[in-house]
Design brief:
Layout: H1 2-6, H2 9-21, H3 25-31, H4 52-61, H5 74-86, H6 104-111, H7 115-121, H8 136-150, H9 163-177
Helix pairs in contact: 2-3, 5-6, 8-9
GO cellular component, one term: cytosol
Protein name: APAF factor
Domain NB-ARC: 75-177
């Protein structure tokens, strides 16, 4: 509790929601009176915080939604944003790595919820893919789906038949059509 009290109001609210959703309703009831109200004067509510335009872009790109239990980690999110901003107009990649379950997906998705970042650096939207450990058949399916999403307006209609063909097609797409 002492750690939560050093955080912002959203951390307290997230802790309350975690208790509620994980079967600790009695404890959640004890904390219910202390839940901070969400003021409408905030620039953004951490519970929502996005315009419908941003929500649409992220949804279309397959970016994961915020989890029910969400605790802000602004320093880490800002670090990812800075790396994305450093790409500027040059093509490149930002790789987020770490142990399983440490929050890579949540942090990266949160960084993409910045409307200015989306407007300036991802004007065509984003395409989110989770790879993880895959067998060859699963990897081929993911690569085929990504090719289909990226070639939506292309005359190429046949899906790649193997991983090498999919890699080559994606390499060309990334270089020619989606350098950023």
């Amino acid at each position: 509790i002492n750690i939560i009290l050093t955080k912002d109001n959203n951390s307290y609210r997230s802790f309350y929601n975690a208790l509620l959703h994980e079967g600790y309703r009695d404890l959640a009831a004890l904390l219910q009176d202390g839940i901070p109200a969400i003021s409408s004067g905030n620039r953004k509510s951490s519970m929502d915080g996005m315009t419908s335009h941003v929500k649409t872009i992220l949804c279309e790109g397959g970016v994961p939604q915020r989890p029910v239990v969400f605790v802000t980690r602004p320093k880490l999110v800002d670090a990812i944003k800075k790396k994305l901003y450093c790409l500027g107009s040059d093509p490149g990649w930002v790789t987020v790595y770490g142990m399983a379950g440490c929050g890579k997906t949540v942090l990266t998705a949160e960084a993409l919820r910045d409307p200015q970042l989306l407007e300036d650096y991802f004007p065509g939207g984003v395409h989110w893919i989770s790879v993880g450990k895959q067998d060859k058949a699963g990897l081929l399916i993911k690569l085929q789906n990504l090719c289909s999403r990226l070639e939506h307006d292309s005359t190429v209609s046949q899906r790649p038949l193997n991983i090498e063909e999919a890699k080559d097609r994606l390499r060309l797409l990334m270089l020619r059509k989606y350098p950023r």
